[in-house]
């Protein structure tokens, strides 16, 4: 009983501390000069696939931002080195003063209704063929011309 209570208190203490503290990853490797003083998260290059594009896409950074945070990588990313830490977040992810973020609203794609308009109320959703009635058409004439349904189906 004592161990479970201690465990619960420990979990609660960690949760409260984590929610109050800032997210800051300790720098455990080589940090190149020129990185911003307000960098709050770094990624270490440990594998070949961890290039500029990988980090930019993973952290939703523009290439210009990544190079600004990590000038040693150079604009062509030839300066990335194994074991080095690269800044991928500044100011705890909050835009700095004077910085603005813009998002472009998704433009709705036009949809095409497969049904012509107007149609009668209660039309079934599985209907795939339509006929535009003309002046002088009757139920009997349409049923006779198509021969794929009877009066009861037509009237439903």
UniProtKB/TrEMBL annotation:
Signal peptide: 1-18
GO molecular function term, any single one: chitin binding
Disordered, as annotated region: 97-120
InterPro entries referenced in this protein's UniProt entry, alphabetically: LysM1-like (IPR052210), LysM_dom_sf (IPR036779)
Keyword Zinc-finger: no
Similarity comment: Belongs to the secreted LysM effector family.
Protein name: LysM domain-containing protein
Gene source species: Fusarium oxysporum f. sp. conglutinans race 2 54008
Lineage, uppermost ranks: Eukaryota, Fungi, Dikarya, Ascomycota, Pezizomycotina
């Amino acid at each position: 009983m004592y161990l479970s209570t201690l465990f619960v208190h420990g979990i609660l203490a960690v949760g409260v501390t984590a929610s109050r503290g800032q997210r800051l990853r300790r720098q455990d490797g080589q940090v190149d000069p020129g990185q911003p003083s307000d960098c709050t998260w770094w990624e270490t290059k440990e594998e070949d696939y961890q290039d500029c594009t990988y980090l930019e896409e993973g952290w939703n950074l523009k290439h210009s931002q990544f190079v600004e945070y990590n000038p040693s990588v150079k604009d062509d990313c030839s300066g990335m080195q194994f074991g080095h830490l690269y800044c991928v977040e500044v100011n705890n992810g909050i835009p700095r003063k004077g910085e603005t973020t813009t998002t472009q609203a998704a433009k709705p794609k036009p949809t095409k209704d497969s049904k012509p308009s107007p149609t009668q109320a209660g039309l079934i959703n599985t209907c795939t063929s339509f006929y535009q009635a003309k002046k002088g058409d009757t139920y009997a004439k349409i049923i006779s011309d198509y021969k794929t349904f009877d009066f009861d189906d037509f009237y439903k």
